[in-house]
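User: I'm putting together a small comparison set for a docking exercise, and I want a reference complex before I start. The sequence is below, and the ligand is arginine. Could you produce the 3D structure with the ligand included, as C-alpha cells?
Assistant: Of course. I'll restate your input first, then give the C-alpha cells for the complex.
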Amino acid sequence: MRHGRFEKDLNALMRRLNASIGFDRRLHAEDLRGSLAWAEALQRSGLVTADDLKRIQDGLGRIQQEIDEGSFAFAEELEDIHMNVEARLTALAGAAGEKLHTGRSRNDQVATDFRLYVKGAAGEAMERIAALMRALVRAAEREFGVVIPAYTHLQRALPVLFSHHLIAYVEMLGRDRKRFLAAREAADVCPLGSGACAGNQFQVDREFLQRRLGFGDLTRNSMDAVSDRDFAADYLYAAALLLVHLSRFAEDLILWTSSEFGLVRLDDSVTTGSSMMPQKRNADAAELARGKAGRVSGRLVGLLMTMKGLPLTYNKDLQEDKEPVFDAADTLELILPVFQTMVETMAVSVERARALLRGGFLEATAVADYLTRKGVPFREAHRLSGQAVLRAEKLGLDLPGLPLEEYRALSPHFGQDLYGKISLEAALQDKTVTGGTAPERVREEIERWKKELAIS
Ligand code: ARG
C-alpha cells in the first residue's frame, strides 16, 4: 500500500500502534466470506473474469485452510486482517488477487466483517442465556415448595417460594435475550458497496451482496454505513446489563452460601479453596461474575467514548471498536456456562430456609392484613401490628406464639381465628394476583417458561 505515495517506511512504533492484526485476525472467517461475496459481485458486474473469480475463490479457500492449520503468517507490516488476506491472495492468485479490492474500501469491508461478527456473537449469547434460563426453570421445579424470606433493604420482609426468587432471574434473562436480539437486528444491515464513504463507482450489485451474505437489510447512506457502530454499542449494552443481572444473582448466591445464611451449597466443581485456610469454600464463580459486571460495563462506556464527537465518516479511532466487543464476547462465553453449572448443581437446605423464616416477625404484615379484613383502616392496623411485634420482642416470643390476651389488649378486633390466618403458609397462599408468590401462580409461571424455552 505504501509503494506508491510514500518514500519512507513507517516508524517502528507507529507501525505497532497502527496495526490491528493482533486482534482483528479474529475476523478472518467474516473477512473471507465478505471477500468471496465481493469477488462474485465483481464478476457479475464484469469487473473480473470467470477465470479471475475461480482463482480468487481457490486462493481464499486456501487461506482459510492455512489459518485453520495455523500455518498462515500474519504480518504486522500488513496492518490488519484485510491487507493480510489480500497480500496472501495476491501471492496465491497473482493479478486476479490484485483485482479483488476494486471498488471496495477497508472502510466498508471492516464494517461488513464486524457486523457479521456481532450477528454471530449476539446469536451465541442468546443461546447461552436460554440454556441458563432452562437451568433456572428446572431448579425452580426441583426446589418447588421451599419457602424462604424475601428481603427488602436486606432485612427479612415476607415469605416467598424459593422458586419465585429463581424465576425473577428468568424474567431478567428473558429481557436480556431480547436485547441481544435487538443488537443482532441492528447488526443485520449490509454496508458493503458503500466504498470509502461516498458509495461504489462500479455499480456493484449491493442487493446481491446483501442476499449473498445473509443480511436482512441494506444500509441506505454510504457515509453513515462506514461510520456507524451503533450495533456494537447495542451488543455491549446488552452484555453489560446481562452482567449486571448476573452480578445481582451472584450477590444472592454469595450471601446464601455464607455460614450466616447457609441456605445454599454450591457444588465442589464450581467452588474454590483458600491457600491458607483449609476450611474455606469460596463462591469465586459468583464473585467473578460480580467483578466482570464492572469490566463489561467499562467496555460499553469505552466504546461510547470512542464514538463521542467523531466527525463523519471513517476515522482511525474506529479501530478501537473491536476489542471491547471481543472481550465482552469472551467474558460471556465463560461466565454463562459456569453460571449454568452453578445453578444445575446447587443444593438448597430446607432446614436453613425454615430457620431463616423464624424470628424475623415475618407474620407482621399478615397480622395487619387480618385487622384490615375486620374493617380496621390499614394505617391503624399497621400500628397495632407493630405494637404486637414490640410486645412479642419484649416477651421473647414470636407472633404466632404471642397469647391472644396480648393481642386483645391492643385491639378487641383480634380473635382466635388470628392464628390460622398468620401462618407462613397462609401468607403465601393469599398472594394469588398475577406475579404473586402463591404456589399455584408460581407453578403457572414455571409452566409458561417451560413452554417458552421448549423444556419437556
Ligand atoms: N484496521 C482498520 C479498522 O479496524 C480497517 C479499516 C482501515 N481503514 C482505513 N481507512 N485506514 O478500522
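The beta strands are 147-152, 155-161, 189-190, 217-218, 264-265, 347-348. Residues 101 and 254 are 54 Å apart (CA to CA).
User: Thanks, that's exactly what I needed.
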